[in-house]
Amino acid sequence: MLILISDAFDKSLPEKLSVYGEVTDDKSRLKDADVVLIRSKTKATKEYIDEAKNLKLIIRGGVGMDNIDKAYCKEKGIIAVNTPKSSAIAVAELAFALMISVPCHIPFYDNTMKKGEWQKSVKRTELYGKTLCLLGMGNIARKVAERAKAFGMNVVSYDKYVESSDLATMMSLEDAVKDADYISMHLPYTSETDKMVNKALIEKMTHHPVIINTGRGKCVDENDVAEALKTGALSWYCTDVYSSEPPEASNPLLGCENIIFTPHVGANTNENLLRIGEEVFETIGNLLKEGKI
Q1: What is the pTM of this model?
Q2: Quick count: other Cβ atoms within 10 Å of Cβ 267?
Q3: Which residues are catalytic?
Q4: CA angle 28, 49, 38 (to 5 degrees)
């Protein structure tokens, strides 16, 4: 069996996977690969899949699978899976770091101190007692909710597929965002979530909230978010994800104030790469035992 590691994983993974067969990072060998490991960089399109004549399994290290043509994989009898549990802590910590940086004015204080300014008159606000709305209530959102509860926040959530939660009050989408001070997005990208956060939904938000997006860039209408930042309908937008990555020069968010950018690094912790590797190893082993690959 030939395993192709197409994107960046922990350096220990090739040796670990060698018990299953030959392991390579030579992308020119895609045509011979039985298993391909990807993250967000590689796009497993129909054309990509057709090039891999022996392909039996694609593993996406991480949560989102919108860079894999899952329907075509199913048609071709190729198994496509992700590592849904591995990244929860890493992404949740980044989401919370972005959220807390806004009321603490960390970017502002840092930038002005470096200019020799002493901006002590700019007052911070607290997360304590504020309402956090989680869009999506999966593994990552639950980790964010646990941290928010520890900060004394009120947590509400919308998830079409979750009726109740021990960590959040589940509501309709409009009710969940209505009185939110902070909104943290943890949605997969689907036809249902495409541009879910748009002008119409923003108009339902009464507290001019801060939106943190560590899910998928296409789940927001970037033009509407940019306009809402300019009018004050949104206080801040903090994002790790974009409609195209890296964002194009024409992206309307790049010209906005009250925005914090990170370059899609939610899952990029040393610890998480190790966890992803362990889940990949277990996944391949289990599928081999079941005779599926």
Answers
A1: 0.90
A2: 26
A3: 216, 245, 264
A4: 70
